[in-house]
Design a protein that fits this description.
Elements (H helix, E strand, L loop, with lengths): L35 H19 L4 E2 L2 E2 L1 E4 L4 E4 L2 E3 L4 H22 L2 H5 L2 H18 L14 H27 L1 H9 L6 H21 L2 H6 L6 H4 L6 E4 L1 H4 L25 H4 L20 H13 L6 E4 L1 H4 L9 H22 L4 E7 L6 E2 L4 E12 L5 E9 L4 E4 L4 E3 L4 E11 L7 E10 L4 E9 L4 H5 L1
Antiparallel strand pairs: 1-2, 3-4, 4-5, 6-7, 8-10, 9-10, 10-14, 11-13, 11-15, 12-14, 15-16
Helix pairs in contact: 1-4, 2-14, 4-5, 5-6, 5-7
Length: 473
């Protein structure tokens, strides 16, 4: 039984970096630390923002470079259109992208989060700059602290809304097309209520994310940080604090001269690495789930070390093995295995893509009787030919039987013609002599040929009667 005099253990100072001891939200307004790494991140971020904004307007072979038309089940990626029948290609593409992130993580840690993730890019290089411009760094003791007057807060959220609306419309361009979004923009919302509600919902979600939820998306919602334990190893490059050089930490002052203190490390415990962290952690406590490899603490620490005349790199990109006095190794099981698998997937993707035709064809059986007998003793099977034209131009097709030579086909339609990117089903009658059937089945090979020069072979099994000789045997 629990004693009434037992003492309940209180929580730590911060259960999460965004949660105070009493359970209230800890709002983070990190101080901006300029330096060589921030300059590089800015360049990368602005390039990625430009690509995201301009890519829908780029056309390849007359098509939007990236158009994920879910309603029509057509995904156009850099001029090539993926259809529902391209499941293997889509699976290979997604696995390749996922393993590429795994490889980057094994080599450079959580570099995706700090340098390429849209959440980080727009939060740190669009929304936070707007906030700093209007509010300074209130709450974290920044030098540009400004009074939080109502008009500044209102203007901040107006600008947040405009940016979120722009992002929502750009995001929608990837799914319905630039031309359609432009048309909707010039029309009344009553003419297209569903797309208007989609844009409104996406705008609201982005405003909630960047205006309120913010870094909690990386800490709480995103599972990538929790996958670090399986994606990283002791030789992965992460943002790390050199404890051997920095400890014991402390600063020398007039009241605490060096002679009265033990030998101190290079860390002067200025805590700039903490106040500049966008997720609110102390990197000196070691590798943590919340670290996104943004290198802000590195810029802050390097600036302090330079002022003190000490070598930079107290906080630097290094491996856990190196921080413990070991050696760093580029070549290891993960860094060799991932590229080999990626190369294999790339070869498979190219081979499958190279064998793709200008059309897709599928043969199906008509519902109803499996077969019928004609007056002249032939076995008739009714089939359906489903064709999809992958071209942006109309095409005509023909169908014939390659094996067995005694079989032939007839079409219910006068011709097989499809418009650009059109899909349609045609009805086919296959007639075959009875002696071609064995145990009630006859393998057949059909050939569909387009006027573009492509041909596709389809193997199928016709159903027929069981012959008496087969039953006797």
């Amino acid at each position: 039984m629990t004693s009434t005099n037992s003492v309940l253990l209180g929580p730590e100072k911060h259960v999460l970096s965004t949660l105070e001891r009493d359970g209230s939200r800890r709002w983070l307004k990190p101080r901006l630390s300029t330096g060589r790494f921030l300059t590089r991140r800015r360049m990368v971020a602005y390039v990625l923002i430009a690509i995201f904004t301009l890519l829908p307007f780029v056309k390849i072979n007359g098509r939007q470079s990236i158009l994920l038309d879910i309603a029509a089940r057509r995904f156009t990626i850099f001029g090539y259109t993926f259809l529902p029948t391209d499941t293997l290609l889509l699976a290979l593409f997604l696995v390749f992208a996922l393993l590429s992130i795994f490889l980057a993580t094994a080599l450079f840690g959580r570099v995706w989060c700090g340098w390429a993730c849209p959440q980080t890019i727009y939060m740190e290089f669009v929304f936070r700059p707007i906030e700093r411009l209007l509010e300074g760094t209130a709450g974290r003791g920044g030098p540009n602290k400004k009074p939080l007057v109502a008009w500044r807060i209102a203007l901040k959220y107006v600008l947040f809304f405009i940016v979120s609306l722009h992002l929502a419309n750009t995001f929608l361009c990837y799914f319905v097309g630039v031309d359609r979004v432009g048309q909707w923009t010039r029309q009344s919302p009553l003419d297209h209520p569903l797309p208007f509600l989609v844009v409104a919902a996406v705008t609201g979600l982005m405003l909630f994310d960047f205006g309120y939820f913010r870094e909690q998306l990386c800490i709480i919602a995103c599972p990538y940080g929790r996958l670090q334990s399986v994606l990283l190893d002791q030789n992965s490059l992460v943002v790390g604090y050199d404890a051997q050089r920095g400890e014991p930490r402390g600063r020398v002052s007039k009241t605490r001269p060096q002679a009265s203190l033990p030998v101190l490390g290079d860390c002067v415990d200025c805590k700039l690495c903490v106040v500049t962290c966008p997720t609110g952690i102390d990197i000196r406590k070691g590798l943590q789930m919340e670290c996104i490899n943004c290198t802000q603490c590195m810029d802050a620490c390097d600036a302090v070390m330079s002022k003190l005349g000490r070598p930079r790199g107290l906080i630097r990109l290094s491996s856990q093995a190196e921080n413990r006095g070991g050696q760093f190794h580029w070549l290891r099981a993960r860094t060799l295995g991932y590229p080999l698998v990626l190369a294999l997937i790339a070869v498979m993707f190219v081979v499958v893509l190279a064998n793709k035709k200008s059309f897709n064809a599928m043969i199906l059986r008509e519902p109803g009787n499996l077969h019928t007998m004609t007056p002249d003793g032939l076995v008739q099977n009714l089939l359906r030919l489903k064709l999809t034209n992958r071209l942006d131009a109309a095409a005509c097709y023909s169908m014939s039987v390659r094996e067995p030579l005694t079989a032939h086909t007839t079409l219910s339609e006068s011709e097989i013609r499809l418009g650009p990117n059109e899909s349609e089903t045609f009805h086919v009658q296959v007639l075959c002599p009875m002696h071609e059937f064995h145990n009630g089945q006859c393998p057949i090979r059909l050939v569909v040929q387009s006027d573009q020069g492509d041909n596709l072979e389809l193997d199928f099994k016709l159903i027929g009667p069981f012959l008496k000789t087969a039953l006797t045997e």
